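Appendix C. Worked example: Xanthine dehydrogenase accessory factor
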Amino acid sequence: MTIHTGDYLLDHAKAWSRDGLGVALATVVQTWGSSPCPTGSQMVINAKAGFEGSVSGGCIEASVVSESLEALKSGAFEIAEYGVSKEMSFAAGLSCGGSVRVMLEVLDDALLAALSGPRPAVRIVDMRDGKWTVVRGEAAMGRLPADGDMIARAAKVLSTGRACIAEGCEGGDCFYQPLLAPYRMLVVGAVRIAQILAPMAAEVGFHVTVIDPRRAFSTDARFPETDMVREWPDKAVAKLGLDAQTALVALTHDAKPDDMALGLAVRSDAFYVGALGSKRTHASRVARLREAGYTEAEIGRIHAPVGLDIGARTPGEIAVSILAQVIAARNGRA
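Step 2, the predicted output written as structure tokens:
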């Protein structure tokens, strides 16, 4: 399964490292049965027992933190196994009945730099001793030697976006971890819905940029942790670009800026295009776009009224419905 966590775990790790704290990385490398977090799920843990992320949804995090603290003290690499049995308590096992293997390693400067490097890439880890290499294209960099077969397998892993275990590493098992560029969400209109949507989208792995030339709307106080572009949408979207990992959501409810952005989006590779407005508003929008020369297929790409039909009325509810629809599109369900 492709994991969409964005860069927030690395951001926390970097901040802790700057503060002089040791940091450990915990990664789910294998699951059996019912497990709340799929292969590739991660946590970062600092030397004061602070942590971010999840490897089980809450069942084993306390144990993972405890073992990570030991790993930070010893510098040791470890594969820990957690499961459920009659003898195991909820504090140390998966209450859902599954089992999971978690890789624990010290997140030192070299590994942090490798994970923060250009993407896409694949990290290959020898599960016997923790040696790793990062493959970008045909090049590999790290202490683990990578032969042609390993590089070819890394390319396959990258094409699926799914972490996995495979043979290699001189006869031992290797863990292949895809390092993907984050999905992006361009939100046109620094309105109340955008204030709620932006942080939620960031939590599920989107790098969010809000676009609005209106200075009264696009203030840092209203969007303290979101990238802002204070330009008209036609210029901003052209600069930022629209690719197959980008969603565009038009929320100004103003024909001029919304149409600017939508016109570019429907002729791009963006995986999702949505626009706020009632059915009547969208009918007027469709007429304008037809008159401007857009085809029925292009206009038909616009999700409008935007969001899943959950009866949303408030800005918060609308934001939830939008994010749900975007996630569905990202996962091939819309």
